[in-house]
Amino acid sequence: MKLSYLKRIQNEAGYTLCAIREDFIFTSHARGIAPIMDQIRRDPLYFHDCVVCDTIIGKAAAMMLVRSKVSYLHAKVMSEAAHALLQRYEIAHSYDELCPYIINRKQNGMCPMEMCVQEMEDLQGAYDALEKTLQHLRQAQ
């Protein structure tokens, strides 16, 4: 029921990310990994026990949600690396479309976040690497 509710409000309001727990709901229109990173930067367990519905989940986002102890994750589009990671951590999940990897916004290669953690397995190390990559990308703008 929570997942169907999240899918409905995501589609109706155009949210990129929705999360729900018993007494809590989080929604965002922000793109990329930003809405996840912004919350877990303040509280590493922000998504603890949440059902999350996201537009696009690559390995980077999956790693951060696993680190935050998400209980269930659904994505409209999920990368094969994210799917494998969620299976490894036994996180219940689903997707509408599975793809080899997440494509960058220019549509000419791999998403920099996905690329950043491509060979990583350590969740804390991935968080640190993603923070550095985000900082570098912000400075380049």
Folded structure, characterized:
By secondary structure, the protein is an alpha/beta fold. The chain contains 6 helices and 5 strands, in the order αββαβαβαβαα. Strands 2-1-3-4-5 form a 5-stranded mixed sheet. Helix 3 links the parallel strand 3 and strand 4. The radius of gyration is 14 Å and the shape is globular.
What would the keywords be for this entry?
alpha/beta, 6 helices, single chain, five-stranded mixed β-sheet, 141 residues
Overall pLDDT level: 95
Structural class: alpha/beta
First-to-last CA distance:
41 Å
The gross shape turns out to be globular
Unreliable runs, pLDDT <50, ≥5 residues? none
Widest sheet: strand ordering = 2-1-3-4-5
SSE order = HEEHEHEHEHH
Major sheet: 5 strands, mixed
Number of strands: 5
Q: Determine the fraction of residues in helical runs and give it as a percent range.
A: 40-55%
SSE topology sketch:
Elements: H1 2-13, E1 17-21, E2 24-28, H2 34-42, E3 51-57, H3 59-67, E4 72-79, H4 80-88, E5 92-99, H5 112-117, H6 123-140
Parallel strand pairs: 3-4, 4-5
Antiparallel strand pairs: 1-2, 1-3
Helix pairs in contact: 3-4, 3-6
Give a concise summary.
This protein is an alpha/beta fold. Helices cover 45% and strands 23% of the residues. The chain has a five-stranded mixed sheet.
